Every structure is written in structure tokens, then in C-alpha cells.
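Pipeline run #58 for the internal structure catalog. This entry was flagged by the ingest filter as a single-chain record with no existing model, so it goes straight to prediction. Upstream metadata was stripped on purpose; only the residue string is passed forward. Reviewer on rotation: M.T. Logging verbosity set to normal.
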Amino acid sequence: MSNTSKIPFLDLVSPHVQLEEELVAVFRSALRTAGFIGGPAVEGFERDFAAFCDARHCVGVSSGTDALRFALIAAGVESGDVVITVPNTFIATTEAISQSGALPDFVDVDERTYTMDPEKLREYIRTQCIVNRETGRLMHLRLKRPVTAIVPVHLYGQMADMDPLMELAERYKLIVIEDACQAHGAEYFSKRENRWRKAGSMGHAAGFSFYPGKNLGACGEAGAATTNDLAVAQKMRMLRDHGQAKKYYHDVEGYNGRLDAIQAGILSVKLRHLAEWNEQRRAAALRYDELFASAEGVIVPYKPEWSRPVYHLYVIRVEDRVAMQNELSDAGIGTGIHYPVPLHLQKAYEGFGYKQGDFPVTERVSAEILSLPMFPQLTSQQAREVAGKVLAAKIGATQ
């Protein structure tokens, strides 16, 4: 795959060919036991993924969206609440909030990390909310609704700056649900605790997606929620299975959001390789960093001292993103844009009344970001060819 006409944005074939016999064995076992829903395969994966995330509990579900939605409901978000997140994310984040009965609202992101800016959250609380003196809870001044939760999004494989966010959440009694859908294995150094923490272990609960292109991807749709709270885990288990406390006894009205046993088995096979794959992604990102070290006009991913990212994506920023993407496409190099239209400007949310200029950092970033090829099997030669085309395009644009 050294020819530039064959450098994909993402290689989903190679790892599946490499693991083909193990993956086929999972399917064969399901056929021979009729173990399709629940059972040992799901329970085993939940146990192992919880351990991987340094969390006490894991609940397998049918998608990352379900994971976030069930986490919000189980942690105590109620219909009519306001839940704060960022506009620089995939719409599943806000879908989960809306579908839990709450109203999503936004604060802008940090321009270097592209994740929730703690100072913007602090400003939001100071200017748009009032504290109920009796309960200590926040009330949104304009919306006349309680503000009960925040959803920091760990984006592109890097965690949000959690210490200041957790401090604000504790002060104002806010539920914290981590959107860890792109951060399997990412770590954050908490100065408050003087230790590294894994994505999915810091908030009240967290949601993970196992969409095929993720660092840990299923062969189809799948997700999981993690938590350290047994009551939250038990509530999520009921929500995913029609609200059943036991078969045909429904304590609440739930959903059909179960993780099927075949996908759980596939994820268990892949989980054994995830740490190695994440290290290969880090190595590929380091090669890119070195190749772009002296480049003008190419902003590479920022890595704070508190972060151990897993590079779900390697996202650069350039001024003329469209021209750059076209140049790379002409050279046979796959790219992506994550995400071209901020959520507050999406047609789906026209009714919220947001306008251009409301979240300037997100809007500026969204016009410049470009995701380069990134996957564990990316070779040094491929990285050099990608970087060479990027640099050549930049030089051509200035001449």
C-alpha cells in the first residue's frame, strides 16, 4: 500500500483479515449454542471492558447513542432539564440529550484541544444561570429550566480537561456524563487526585460507541456505558431491556437497546489487541508530528501535559481546507472532516434560535479542520507520502 493511490482514510480490512479465524469462531459458537442475546459473551465483554476503563461496571448496549441516552436517564436527568455540551461534536451527543427528555445547550470549545472550555462553562453559569438558594441547584434564567448535567465530549481520541469541569460540577451539583465515544483507552492526569484516569471512569457515567471505525469497533452497531455507581448500572440494564427487572416484570418503560452476543464476542476478541493498536496510533501520530514540525500553516493536534490521547483521528488545521482536501483526493489519499457544520447551525436545531457567531471558536475550527489517514496499520512510508502531499499543497498555495 505504498502507492499514494491506495492510502485510505481508514483501513477496516487488514485487522479483520488478521483476526478472521478468531472472529469466525465467535459466530460459529453463537450458531452452535443459539446464544444470540445476552448470556456469557455479553457478560464477559462487560467485565473485561469495565476493567479496561478502570470502571466498576459496564453495560453493553446497541449503540453509542443508546449508551449516552441511558447514562443520562439513569444518572438522574429528567424531562425538561437543561444539559450542557459543546457544538463541536457529532449529533448523537445532542440526540441522546433530547431523547432523554432534556434540552441541549452549548458552551464553546478550547481552540487548542477542541473540547469543552472550562472557562466558557464557568462564564455560562455566571451569566446565564442563577443558583437556587434552597437547593443549591442551577436554574437557567432565560429558559426557566433547571440545569442538571454536563456532557464533556472526549474528541478525536483526547479527553476533555476534566479537573476544572469536575470542580464546577461538584460546586453546582451537576451530573457529569462523559461522551467517550471516540476515546477508548485515552487517559487524563488528574492533579486533584495525582493520578492518571481513564476515559469512562471520571463522570457519573460514560458512553462509548463501537461503530466499526472506532479504535474498538464492532462488525456492525454496538455501544457500552460505564459507571462506578451500581444503582446507575442497574437502571441502565433495565432501560436497555424494556425496563425489565426480571423477565416480564417491567419496573419502568424502557427501550430495546441490547448488545447482541455476536457483537460482544467480536469486541472481546478485538479488546485483547486494543492497547497495542492504540500504541500504534500514537506512533503514527508522532510520525506525523515530526513530519509537520517545521511546516508553516499546518496546525497539528495539541497534546497537553495532562493528556494521553489515543488518536481516533489525526486532525490538522489549514486555511484553505477545500483546496487541500481536493489535492489529497487527486493524489489518492483519503481524508475526512469531523465536523463541517457545528451543531448549533444544523437545520435540525433551527428552532433553538442559534445564529452564526454564537460560538466563534467552534465555527472557526470547523472551517479549517481536516482529518488525515489514521489507523494502526498506517506505515511510516504512507505517513511520509501523506505529509509530503500536504506540504506540497501548502507550498503550491503560497506561490
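catalog note: The CA atoms of residues 335 and 372 lie 5 Å apart.
catalog note: The chain has two domains: 14-269, 274-398.
status: ready for reviewer M.T.
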